Amino acid sequence: MDATAVVGCFRDRTILVTGSTGFLGKLLVEKILRVQPNVKKLYLVVRASDAASAEQRILSQVLGKDLFNTMREKHGLAGFEELIQEKIVPLAGDIGIQNFGLDRSTVDDLCEEIDVIIHGAATTSFYERYDVALASNALGAKYICEFAKKCSNMKLLLHLSTAGTRKGLLLEEALQMGETLRPGYCLDIKAELRLVEKIKTELRVANSGGPDQSLEKTAMKELGLKRACHFGWPNVYTFTKAMGEMLLAQERGDLPLIIMRPAMVTSTFQDPFPGWIEGARTIDALIVAYTEQAFPCFVGDRKNIMDAVPADMVVNATLVAMAVHWNEKGYVIYHVCSALQNPLSGYVLEDACWDYFSKHPRIREDGKPLKNKRPYVFKRFTLFRAYLIMVYKLPLEILHAVSLLFCGLFSQSYNKYNRRYNFLILLVKLYAPYAFFKGCFDDTNITRLLTEVKMDCNGGSIFNFDPRSMDWHSYLLNVHVPAVIKYGRKN
């Protein structure tokens, strides 16, 4: 199968996309429209109160982004707007509700039209409320599957998941219902839903029937992290995404299903242009911390391999997988990863940051260049924690005490350095599991998929997802670190 055949699969097709306001969702919408402007319709489900609000969200949070500049240049502004009017249909809905909360008539019409569903909607925060994460990442997958089974012309359902952080070799295989990462434990999703309602009810009763929103938010966030760790997951995001996969496997019947599990996603490598990203994502948070000199030390091992993949490679692999498995009745899982084919070590990431900031020194508030320093990396968490207490926390508390004695004289300095300290602690809490990650993602299926598309000068490269085609140091130095500085710190 060549690139022309991949593009042809989407001609005159109606595709429903959830998560189009997200990072990968935007890229998928842009890529489909750019390579196949003869797609019939793209229904974009977004959370909104009504149709007008949904349209406004799509215009401002998707189509208004720099990502679509290539298409604006290609079609001209008037042509681009005409294409959008013809092809894009915003839908106000909620993936955490059956049928997105749409009325029966709308659902019936959609089920007659839709050929393909790309389910990318999710809450990706590592420290999300448990009730929110369950509704979006777990139940959302269940409801999208139920909806897909009603569609009479359904060719396939594609679900964007995550590769996770298991130890050992992670196979491209389905998660079994109730399976956990902690030996001897069994996950009951219905019991977790009941637990959430029980805790929320108890909070309402304790507050005389009136919910304390701040207290409930904190309690739900803490519960999510606690339950994730209890079953062996490092955060509520990967935990509830795993639940979503279990529910999909249980509910799908003979529905054609593809699950894409990308590793850590970074900025675009080539397409539609190098270096587009939104927000600070996993390793990007470390780059932002390095930039702001809030990264004096960290915990991990520079020798460790970080499995990362550029976002456009995830999108390309996704579209090729859809074309290859078009209308097949099977169930296939792909790890979109790089570690086995083109490993990225902590040394390479650190060297790229050092080289970039040596060429582009940061400027302090007084206008002077900031000295480029390499962070100290502890291989043992206990030593790292002791170092933080001795070097940062104790002096901070002494400064705080002195400030109180002198009527807040040093409060500004204390608040500034305390924020940096808390930022570092948050980074460690959320990203230490990735710093010590000892797993390896099996890439048998994704390697086989690579052979399905001819990478030649006649257009096959528009669907490049071969990690061997990139040099990590060059990409990080010239593309990714500048992208994080430009885009990542805006969010």
Structure commentary:
The protein is an alpha/beta fold and 491 residues long. The chain has a single domain, classed as Rossmann fold (3-Layer(aba) Sandwich). 49% of the residues lie in helices and 12% in strands. The protein has 16 helices and 15 strands. The strands form five sheets. It has a seven-stranded parallel beta sheet with strand order 3-2-1-4-5-7-12, with helices on both faces. Strands 6-15 form a two-stranded parallel sheet. A two-stranded parallel sheet has the order 8-11. Strand 4, helix 6 and strand 5 form a beta-alpha-beta unit. Helix 13 packs antiparallel against helix 14. The chain is globular. It starts with a helix and ends in a 5-residue tail after the last helix. The relative contact order is 0.13.
